[in-house]
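Q: 1,2-phenylacetyl-CoA epoxidase subunit A, please. Structure only.
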Amino acid sequence: PEAELQARFDALIEADQRIEPRDWMPEAYRKTLIRQISQHAHSEIIGMQPEGNWISRAPSLKRKAILMAKVQDEAGHGLYLYSAAQTLGISRDEMTEQLIESRARYSSIFNYPTPTWADMGAIGWLVDGAAICNQVPLCRASYGPYGRAMVRICKEESFHQRQGFEILLELSQGTPEQHRMAQEAVDRWYWPALMMFGPPDDESPNSAQSMAWKIKRFSNDELRQRFVGMLVPQVEVLGLTLPDPNLRWNEERGEWDMSEIDWTEFNEVLAGRGPANAQRIQHRRDAHEDGAWVREAAAAYAEKQAARDRV
Ligand code: 3HC
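A: Structure for 1,2-phenylacetyl-CoA epoxidase subunit A:
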C-alpha cells in the first residue's frame, strides 16, 4: 500500500540513501527532478553557443583546441543529463520539443552576448566557477542517476574553470588594452553569474521541498556567498577587480556584504526578454531542423536492420 511505500521512501531519504529509477517515489519528487535535470541539460546545450561563437576566432591554435574541448564537454554534459532525466519517464524528444518551443527553462547566464575574446575567460572563470559551486553538492543528490552524472561532470568543470582563469590572467598581464578587455568582461559577467544561483532564499519556491528531499543540499544564498568567497582571493591574483564597491566581509554576520542584485534583470531574462534569449532558441531550433535528415536516416537504417534480423 501507498503508505508503506511512502514510509520506505522517507526512510531512504532520511538515511541519506540513493533513490534509484526502479524505486517507488512520490510523483512530486519525480516531477521536480524532471524539472531540474532537464533544465540543467538544456543549460549545457544552450551554453555551447556563447563559446562556440569564438572557436573560429580564437587568438591561437592552443586556445582554439582548448575551447573546442570545452564546448564538446558541455555537449556531453547535456546528453548525460538528458539520459538521467529519461530514467524518470520523460522522452528526449519531449524535452527537445519543450526547449525549441520556448517552453523550457535553462540557465539565465547563457542569454548574454560574448562581444570579445576576454568573455571566454570570464565565462570559464565565473560561469564554470559558479557551476562548480552549484554542482559539487549535487553529487550527493538523493536521486542516483543525477548524483552520479554530477561526479563525472564536476571533474571536467574544474578544467573549464582553470582555462578561463588562465585566459584572464594572460590578458590582465598583457597590454593596457588587453587588461581593459579582461576587466570589462569581468564587469559584464559578475552579476549575471551571481544570478545563476537563483532568487534569494525567501523568494525561492522550490528550495524548502528540494532540500527536504536532499536534492538541494545548500540554499541559493549560501552557495552564492560561497562563490563570492572563492572569487575574492582569485581576483586579487588576476590583478582585476569585482564590480561591487560595497563588497566587504562582515565579521559579525560571518558573510559577505554586497550590493543588491538587480532582480528585475533576472526576472526579465527568465521571462525570455534577456539580451540573447530569442537568438539562442532560434539557433537551437535551426540546428534541430538541420539535423532532421540525420535522425530520419538513422531511423530508416535501424528499421532496415531490424527487418533483416527478423527474417
Ligand atoms: N536561470 C533560469 N531559471 C532559474 C535560475 C536561473 N539562473 N535560477 C532559478 N531559476 C528558476 C527555477 O528553475 C524556478 O523555476 P521553475 O520552478 O519553473 O523551474 C524558479 O526560478 C525559482 O527558483 P528556485 O530557487 O525555487 O528553483 P530551484 O530550487 O530549482 O533552484 C537552481 C534553482 C539553483 C538553478 C537549481 O535548479 C539547480 O541547482 N539546478 C541545477 C544546476 C543548474 O542548472 N545550473 C545552471 C547551469 S550552468 C551549467 O550547467 C553550464 C556549466 O557547465 C557552464
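A: Brief note, in case it's useful. Residues 35-36, 39-40, 43-44, 47, 74, 77, 105, 107-108, 127-128, 131, 134, 157, 195-199, 204-207, 210, 216, 220, 270 surround 3-hydroxybutanoyl-coenzyme A (CB under 6 Å).
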